[in-house]
Structures are given as C-alpha cells and as structure tokens.
Give the backbone structure.
Amino acid sequence: MKASISVLVLALALTLAAAEGRAQRPDLRADRPAKETAEPIRDRTGAVLDNPHITDFDGADFTVEHHGGIARIPYDQMPLAYRKFFLPDPEHGKEEAERRKKMVEDAQRQAILEVQRGVLERQMRASLEAKRAQQTNAVRPGPTYDLPTAYTSRETNDPTKPMRFEVSLHQGVVTDLFPLGGPLMSLELVAVDDDVIAVRRSRHERSLVAKIQHGREESGQNLTWLYSDKNGCSVYWLDTLRKPADSGIFIIEYAPQSPLRPGSPLRQQLPQIPKQP
C-alpha cells in the first residue's frame, strides 16, 4: 500500500515538473522567435513590417509576407533572432537572382513584342480599311473644273478645253515650273516609293506626304493631286511605269480660260525665265 502511494506521488511530481518546463521553454520557430529577444523586421527603407511571416529563403534574401504585401529582405538586414535559423548560401542566392532577372527580362521582351504586334496589326487594318474606302467611294482630289474629260494639248491649245501636259523633274532638285509651262511655283521631288510620295515647294517648306493613287491611266485614276494655285492650275503626280530613274513625271493641268495657261496673253506679258534643261 505504501509503495503504491509513493509511486503515485512520484508520477504527480514528474508531471508537474514537465508542465512547468514546457511553460518556461521559449518558442524558437523561425518565423516566430521569442518575443523578449526578437527585433522587428524592417524592409529596405527601414519601415517596420506588420505581422510578418517568412515564406522563403534563397540563400541571400528572405521572402516575407506581411500585412501590406510581400517584401524581399537581404540576409544581413534581418534580425539575428531570424538569421540564426538559416545559413547563407551566396552561390544559390546568385543563381536565384539571375533566374528572377531572366524571368523579368523575358516578360519585358514579350510585352514589347505584344505592343509591336498590336501596332503592326493596327497599321495593316488601317491600310486595308483605307483601300476598301478608296474602292467603294472612288474619291480623289481635283480637278479644278467640272467639264468632260476632253483635254487639249499645248500645240492645239483650245481655250475652251482643259489642258494637260507632262513635265519630268529630277529628285532632290528644286525646279521652277514657270519656264516649263507650269504655274508660278517651284517643286522638288523629295522621295517616292510604291505607295507614298513626298514633295515640297521650297527647301524651307515642310514636305507634303501624299498617298499615291493607283488605277487606270486612260481614265486618270493614277493621278495624285499635290498643289493648286489661284489661277486655275493644278499639279499632279503621275503613277506610271514610264517613270525614269531618279526622277518623276508630273502633270500640269490648266482649267479652261485660265489666265496663265501657255499661250494666254497675260502669260506672254510676264518676263520669260530661261527654261531649265
């Protein structure tokens, strides 16, 4: 009987001692160190993180979730109470940093490609819509009169009919059109390709960029209107396979009874500038 009581007393004492030991033992989990020894976790700017929780360590930086989001804290900036549970591994940290950098660069490259593809698609869509509108509406500038398409030549020079004739201009040369039978205007062919032409009337003027009109030459659908003066004269670009290299063919068009068309009395009274070769 006495032996049983002694065993019970000894067991009760051991249970109480173990409970007291557990109550006094500190909580040393990596994300929750002993409160009496822990320092607050701060981000790179020094701000204290609210309710922090370590989710990853790559050997150089800690990934910490907190009330305001996610932060990356360098190993040497973490409190000692957290660092003692992790061993730094600079090589692994360098590999992780390079991997993250590559992911960011790939994402940026993909974003740039998406933007470029979007711009190209919009340009192609706009070009297609412009061609469709041109085919359906068949709208083109000019002419400066409203008469049938019967034209007179410079030799015949019927004053009751509109007059058209061609002049060739070298690219990059500002040419006075008056000696060539044109209006009181200078013109320079700046650049031209299959779809666009750039011209200007002087070196000090900003270039006029126009979309070239394509179509049947016999019906005048291949004329791109460029300029008009106040005397019933217009200048067109002629889209033709006859265009010589490094130059272009322009159409000078006069309305009927235009005061400055070739052969008119007023034009003959103006001083004649020597015709350029």
Observations:
- The two ends are 140 Å apart (CA to CA).
- The first helix runs from residue 2 to 24.
- Residues 23-88 form a domain with the SH3 type barrels. fold (CATH 2.30.30).
